[in-house]
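Reference record
================
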Amino acid sequence: MSRRRFRPGRLVAFTLATVWLVIVIAPLYYMILASFRTQGTYLTANPWIPSGGLSAGSYSTVFHAGLGRYLLNSVLLTAACIVATVTISLGAAFRIVRQSSRAVGAAFAVMLFGLAIPVQAIIVPIYVLIYKMHLYDTLFALILTLSAAAIPVSVLVMVSFVRDIPRELIGAMLTDGASEWTVFRRLIWPLSRPVLATLAIYNGLNVWNNFLLPLVLTQSGSVAVLPLGLTKLEGLYSVNVPAVMAGVLLSVLPLLILFILMRRQVMTSLGGIIAR
């Protein structure tokens, strides 16, 4: 058997990857360990060694403070926005690619114009509109506004992807008697799954971490989401670091689960982009 050649590039890549892994894992490890400490042991024991009487009391504390409600609201909001965004953006992209009329082109231009307008610049008109629609202090108001904010970039990405699908495949299905709905359901949707998974994670992160719109468009604790809830928890337990760490850790877990469920589709999408 021939020995493998020593390649300095591999060693450098392995070293850099290890350093990056440590940089990413170390804060997460610290947060997990701190969340299982009591307030007294956090201040006295070594913060990097799991000793000094670990306890799950911090999680009970934050749930009694309402974190469960905040977590549920964020999950419902993020799931609804992801479904609405990927469905509307893929359908709009298919229609834009299939019909090159002036009306469709004008609608696409209006969507792209939304990329140039940040939500922060129109927050007052959004508030007035939501208030006059009697949607203030509801989750539906957040679903409506956050989905609308995510649609322009999602449509732009999906139009670029759908245009790369060979026209011959679509033409062959239409020649065989398939309707456009059948083409969309059996060809466009399956081929778009990797890109949709990437958009789902990207838009899900933006919705999950959004602080401004929930702050302006909601008021009561029953519809508060995690960013607002964590702010309240920090105010209640500013000295209780383990409780704050427990709240932050619980806010990260759903995003990790979302990425784990869609990681294969995301890697497939990234591989296709690199191949181009």
Summary: Residues 52 and 197 are 42 Å apart (CA to CA). The chain has a mean pLDDT of 84. Residues 66-275 form a domain with the MetI-like fold fold (CATH 1.10.3720.10).
